[in-house]
Design a protein that fits this description.
Keywords: Coiled coil, Endosome, Golgi apparatus, Lipid transport, Repeat, Transport. By secondary structure, this protein is mainly α. It is built from 49 helices and two strands. The protein is elongated.
């Protein structure tokens, strides 16, 4: 019998199908289940049959692979029983049971187009849970499943016409395939997570009570049904208005509600069935098929790999957003469930009951506590409101703990007024912040500046600094000064070079606190490091000079450590370091010489010269960076390490040449090429070095020749400058470029001894500066020999030409200050001791006095004292007399008894040997030496040797017949007694030597100077009174004239008389000349 297609029915057959006995089957709801076919039904597959495969290609939609329609499939399914008529619901149930999902979908679509919607298929395809079920989730125990079990995710089955042959080509890129696989896995996991969230939501909604308020998801479901009702009944305007009022919901898709249940019947059916009981969930069967809708279009195989990746990434992002929204809804539902599980009370009773809880929400703090922030913005608003009330109540020692809160709030707060208030609180957080607290605030300001950018720093932070620029507490002004430097990198360049620079300049000129000006100078240095306006050079130069002239040493140190290196780096960038900055300083030094008719301003010279000294490292860096060999620098390979003593110790890291260059490796490579260039290739084409050799050095040497050699300060400053200059530029440069220029000027050959030009230059400061600044740079044997030879030649030349010895003395004083050179100087002096010329020996004897101070006693005993005694054994009295100051210095500085006895015996021989009785110059030198060393010498030496011999000399001077000699001796005695009057003298020595000596001196003064006689008489009278008083009270006591003055009037009279006169020998001699 021919098979009959049950779907190809006539109208009469369709009417017959709607008979009452079949209505139940065709309109059965999904909750009624899918009754299984009878045992002999051909639609039931055998038990051992495999689940049918499902093709998901673009043109294969039916299980048969032929692209047949659902009607054709039904026809083939009914081929064996033409007489039996099967309801469409049974066919739908069988398709779903056997997992012919796409066939069932097409069947559902054709039924919809025919106007015959089947509830089973509608409910199945409207439930997203049927397509997102986790593959490992077991079915419910009462769930009716097909023979294939729960629907697992089906992979795409590639057919011949859907293959992308480029993907499987030999040279295809497998990385994209792996990326697609990873993205498909992520998409699957995201959908599984969403399915779990939907299940949780559905379970949370299943436990409800009729008395609890509506839940959010219930509201969304009802909204969907209401909108559906409005549309079906032509209430279109109402539907539009209703959609606008619920703009957070998509009324086109039931899936947007977010529940894992099929769409319920419309409102009309719900209303009609409201009186009938709902079927039990146990009677329902959930048939789920795990088909991924992404695979349904079947067009991925026709897309490129990049488009597939992009599509999958987009799907994952959408699913992640939905997952986050569902998680938030679950959280809210959990709170709703907890609230609904509470005891059902009337609102009034509940409010009355809760009133017994002691809460306060009417105050400011209570309102803040009861209103918990639920977003980042609300948190910032809350902190902005609360911090002004918190800060005043925190201990001052712990307020820095609030800095992170204040800064974060100020960064993120939306209101400018509140941000300004918070930053004001930050700068006023601590009344007088210490170093650690200021550092914390500065760290916060820098973090704030990095976060908000230059515009807000200018608009919000700088006004806070400006407000406190004149604060009464120096710690607050110090914070402002430090903030200007710390914020410099984060400010607009126009503000850096204008407003901030003006603020710092004002503080440098007006602030009275040293620590504030020190911070200002450091911040100015940072500003100079970031400034890029060439017009500000002159202002920077004036600021440098102003800060160098500051009276505070710490401010000046900050200038050398920070400001000058930063300013030099900027001028290097501008190309004006050696063309403008250094020449400007040299011009100011020369101007000091031209204006210093009454003496050079040593302070200004120190200011300018110290600035030049700080510019030596950047100048050397410029020479290296502009050398001809810079293109040959190689940083790989064996680069020798730089010797520790190669450069002078820098005052700060900014003056380290390695820091200026960039690294020690780069500097080492450049130094290696630098020395090779100087030694073998010369300086041709090396403009920066030629400027140093041909312009800078000659100008400096000329300036040195004009300074006063007797000014130890000037000599020391220039010596230090040349020492650092030569050590920085290196030994080869010093030997080949610096020393030849000095030697050409000094001309130390023997035939030039009597030349006036040679003698003239040897008396200038060029000698000590060359000796101490250039020849001492390096301490190897050949360098020491060169220094010794130079000093010997100068000593010989000056002595034989009867030239002043000031330049030699300056050299010995400068070198003698360093104990390292004591042995070397003694070697030079021994050369003079054994010299054949008495003039050279006299010079050597006088030089001993300059170096004995600070020399070790062992060296004095071993080398100095024997050399002096050797000089005393010579025949020339002038040489012997020249040794007396040196012997006096030994008595003043040495404590070794044996050595003191030897010196005492030598001085006694000068005083007691008859051959010296008529040596007026010797007596003058001894008295002068006693007056100089007496107050500092050992008391026993003073009491037993100095004062008795002064008494003898004063007594002998009374009988001096030659008036000029008498005047000279009286002058020196007055100075010596004036110095010794401040010493504590025993009563015995006072009576036996000091008073008699004063009386002898007064006898000379009565004839030569009555004014000085008054002073001496006052001294004698007060001393006698003191002796009498001490004799009655304490015969063993000691006294001094200065402390023995009894009456205040006597003190005033004595001091006024001493003030009217000078102890200078020349002035006293003039007084005596007027009285003759």
């Amino acid at each position: 019998m021919a098979s009959v297609n049950p779907f190809n029915l006539s109208d009469s057959e369709e009417e017959a199908e709607r008979r009452p006995n079949e209505t139940v089957d065709t309109e059965r709801s999904p909750s009624d289940g899918a009754p299984g076919p009878p045992p002999g039904n051909p639609f039931s597959p055998p038990a051992d049959a495999e689940p049918p495969s499902l093709l998901l290609s673009s043109n294969r939609t039916s299980p048969s692979g032929e692209g047949i329609s659902a009607s054709a499939a039904a026809t083939s399914a009914m081929a064996g029983s033409a007489e039996t008529r099967v309801s469409v619901d049974v066919i739908a149930a069988q398709l779903l049971r056997d997992q012919y999902i796409l066939t069932a979908l097409e069947f559902h679509t054709e039924l919809l187009e025919a106007g015959r919607e089947l509830p089973r298929l509608r409910d199945y395809f409207s439930n997203p849970g049927n397509f997102e079920r986790q593959s490992g989730t077991p079915p419910a125990k009462d769930q009716v499943l097909g023979p294939g079990g729960p629907l697992n995710r089906a992979g795409s089955i590639s057919t011949l016409d859907s293959l992308d042959f480029a993907r499987y080509s030999d040279d295809g890129n497998r990385e994209t395939d792996e990326r697609v696989a990873v993205l498909e896995f992520e998409l699957r996991k995201a959908k599984e997570t969403i399915q779990a969230l939907r299940a949780n939501l559905t379970q949370a909604l299943s436990n409800f009570s009729f008395v609890e308020p509506i839940r959010p998801l219930e509201k969304r479901a009802l909204n969907f049904l209401v909108n559906e009702y409005l549309l079906k009944n032509e209430y279109k305007l109402s539907s539009i208005t209703f959609s606008d009022e619920n703009d957070d919901q998509d009324f086109e898709l039931w899936d947007d509600v977010g529940l894992n249940i099929p769409k319920p019947p419309d409102l009309l059916q719900l209303y009609r069935s409201c009186g009938t009981p709902l079927p039990s969930p146990r009677d329902t069967a959930d048939v789920s098929v795990g088909v991924d809708f992404v695979d349904l279009p079947g067009n991925f195989c026709n897309l490129s790999q990049t488009e597939v990746v992009q599509e999958l990434e987009y799907q994952i992002s959408l699913l992640n957003n939905e997952k986050q929204n569902l998680a938030e809804q679950i959280k809210k539902l959990q709170w709703c469930v907890l609230e609904c599980m509470s005891v059902l009370l009337s609102p009034a009773f509940q409010q009355a009951l809760l009133s017994f809880c002691r809460m306060c929400s009417d105050s400011r703090l209570g309102a803040e506590v009861s209103r918990i922030a639920d977003s980042e913005e609300s948190v910032m608003l809350m902190l902005g409101r609360c911090l002004p009330h918190i800060v005043p109540n925190v201990l001052l020692a712990k307020r820095e703990e609030l800095i992170p809160l204040i800064l974060c709030t100020a960064c993120l707060h939306p209101e400018p007024k509140e941000r300004d208030q918070l930053l004001h609180i930050l700068f006023n957080l601590i009344k007088r912040p210490d170093d650690e607290q200021r550092q914390m605030i500065l760290t916060g300001c820098v973090a704030f500046a990095r976060h908000v950018g230059p515009t807000r720093v200018e608009a919000e932070l700088l006004p806070q600094c400006w407000e406190q620029i004149n604060h009464k507490y120096p710690e607050r002004r110090l914070l402002v000064a430090e903030s200007c430097g710390a914020l410099a990198p984060y400010l607009p360049k126009e503000i850096r070079s204008s407003l901030v620079l003006s603020m710092l300049q004002q503080m440098l000129a007006e602030d009275k606190a040293d620590m504030v000006r020190e911070a200002v100078v450091k911040s100015l240095g940072i500003i100079m490091g970031y400034i890029d306006d060439p017009d500000k050079y002159s202002q920077g130069f004036e600021l440098m000079l102003l800060s160098l002239g500051d009276p505070s040493e710490r401010v000046v140190n900050a200038v050398h450590q920070v400001f000058i290196p930063a300013f030099a780096a900027w001028t290097t960038e501008l190309g004006t370091l050696h063309t403008s900055l250094i020449p400007s300083l040299l011009a100011r030094i020369e101007k000091l010489h031209t204006q210093g008719e009454h003496g050079l301003d040593e302070h200004k010279l120190h200011v300018f010269l110290s600035a030049l000294q700080s510019l030596i490292p950047p100048l050397f860096a410029v020479v290296l960076q502009n050398a001809p060999f810079t293109s040959r620098v190689k940083l790989h390979g064996d680069i020798p390490a730089i010797e520790v003593t190669r450069f002078p110790r820098p005052a700060s890291p900014l003056q380290d040449v390695a820091t200026i260059i960039g690294s020690r490796e780069m500097l080492s490579a450049l130094l290696q090429l630098y020395d090779h260039q100087l030694e073998h290739e010369g300086t041709t084409g090396w403009e920066s070095l030629l400027w140093v050799v041909n312009q800078l050095l000659p100008q400096l040497i000329e300036i040195v020749g004009r300074i006063n050699v007797t000014s130890s300060t000037c000599v020391h400053e220039f010596s230090r400058f040349f020492w650092r200059f030569c050590r920085t530029f290196g030994k080869i440069f010093t030997n080949t470029k610096v020393k030849p220029q000095f030697q050409e000027i000094l001309r130390l050959s023997e035939e030039n001894v009597d030349a006036s030009a040679g003698n003239g230059i040897l008396t200038k400061a060029t000698v000590p500066i060359y000796a101490t600044g250039v020849l001492t740079c390096y301490n190897q044997e050949e360098d020491r020999k060169l220094l010794v030879g130079f000093l010997e030649d100068v000593m010989t030349t000056l002595s034989l030409s009867h030239a002043p010895l000031d330049s030699l003395k300056a050299s010995f004083v400068e070198l003698g200050a360093n104990p390292v050179y004591h042995e070397l100087l003694l070697t030079v002096l021994w050369y003079g001791v054994v010299h054949t010329s008495a003039l050279v020996r006299c010079t050597a004897a006088r030089m001993f006095e300059l170096i004995l101070r600070g020399m070790s006693e062992a060296l004095v005993d071993r080398r100095a004292a024997p050399a002096l005694i050797t000089l005393c054994s010579g025949p020339e009295f002038s040489v012997r007399i020249s040794t007396i100051p040196a012997f006096g210095t030994i008595m003043e500085t040495v404590t070794q008894k044996e050595l003191l006895e030897r010196v005492k015996m030598q001085l006694a021989s000068f005083l007691e040997d008859p051959q010296y009785q008529d040596q007026h110059s010797l007596h003058m030198e001894i008295i002068r030496t006693f007056g100089r060393v007496g107050p500092n010498a050992e008391p026993r030496f003073r009491d037993e040797f100095v004062l008795p011999h002064l008494h003898k000399l004063a007594l002998a001077n009374n009988s001096q017949s030659v008036e000029n000699k008498r005047i000279d001796i009286a002058t020196q005695l007055f100075e010596a007694y004036s110095a010794l009057s401040c010493c504590f003298i025993s009563e015995e020595v006072m009576v036996n030597h000091f008073l008699p000596g004063l009386r002898c001196l007064r006898a000379d003064m009565e004839q030569l100077s009555p004014e000085h006689e008054v002073i001496l008489s006052s001294m004698i009278k007060e001393c006698e009174i003191k002796v009498e008083n001490r004799a009655m009270s304490d015969p063993q006591g000691s006294m001094s004239i200065a402390s023995s003055l009894v009456g205040e009037d006597a003190k005033t009279k004595f001091l006024s008389k001493m003030g009217q006169l000078t102890t200078s020998g020349a002035m006293l001699a003039n007084v005596f000349q007027r009285k003759k």
